[in-house]
Design a protein that fits this description.
Layout lengths: L12 E3 L2 E3 L29 E4 L5 E4 L6 E3 L9 E8 L3 E6 L2 E6 L3 E3 L5
Antiparallel strand pairs: 1-2, 3-6, 3-9, 4-5, 4-8, 6-7, 7-8
Length: 116
């Protein structure tokens, strides 16, 4: 993925130690190029989906009304299985594990494929 940025700002005089022009012209252009390697979609994940932990997070945060942030001292290990309880902004998920409900980033788990 390639990104390009362009920015233009015009300053004409110094006022109180800061260059100032009354109006500042800014322009930002962002362009994203398609590549052949796309990350796997998380579209299969929804509330109630089974998941498996693939990497143990360094810190964990409880999903209680009064959350607690602490170091993961072996509570959550790779291979643990749980279910998604809810979705939070920015790829953050509330996951119910055997030891409780925790907020985990999507990079620490994947959908569990169940065979029928």
């Amino acid at each position: 993925m390639a990104l390009s940025f362009a920015s233009l700002t015009n300053f004409s005089k110094m006022q109180s130690g800061v260059w100032y022009n009354g109006s500042i012209t800014s322009r930002v252009a962002v362009r994203c190029c398609e590549t052949g390697k796309e990350p796997p979609p998380k579209a299969k994940l929804q509330v109630g989906s089974p998941i498996i932990i693939v990497e143990a997070p360094k810190v964990i945060k409880t999903a209680a009304s009064m959350p607690c942030l602490r170091a993961n001292s072996g509570l959550i290990k790779p291979g643990d299985v749980g279910r998604i309880v809810s979705r939070k902004p920015k790829d953050l998920w509330a996951v119910r594990l055997s030891i409780g409900t925790y907020l985990l980033d999507g990079k620490y788990f994947k959908a569990l494929e169940l065979e029928e």
